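SEQUENCE-TO-STRUCTURE ENTRY
===========================
What this section holds: a protein sequence and its matching fold, both as plain text.
Tokens: labelled as protein backbone structure tokens, with as many entries as the chain has residues.
Question of interest: how does this chain fold, as expressed in backbone structure tokens?
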Amino acid sequence: MDERPDGPEAAVPAAMIRQFTAAEAAIYPLAITDPDRYERAVTIVGLVLRQLRHDCTNVDALVMGRLAATEQATELANSEGISLAGLAPETLADAAAALRYRELAAANEVP
């Protein structure tokens, strides 16, 4: 099966799109079940997104920088004094990457 389908998602491997979707799906329910953890997650996602906006000006850079975003999630949480208790940095990084991907797609940066 082709991991790079036609359409806007073609620039990002299908497996990565699935990870982005799963990350967001893991975070959103926290708003109802654990508001404190949700607030921390959203704050860290925002911090990582800000870094991705700086570091990833196109989809290729986003794909290449995704692994570094996990480290950034941990570093940014620590530097801001935000607990990662009950949060997976890779999930937060993937959620931020999903947002950045949609921004790039909306700006026609996706082939």
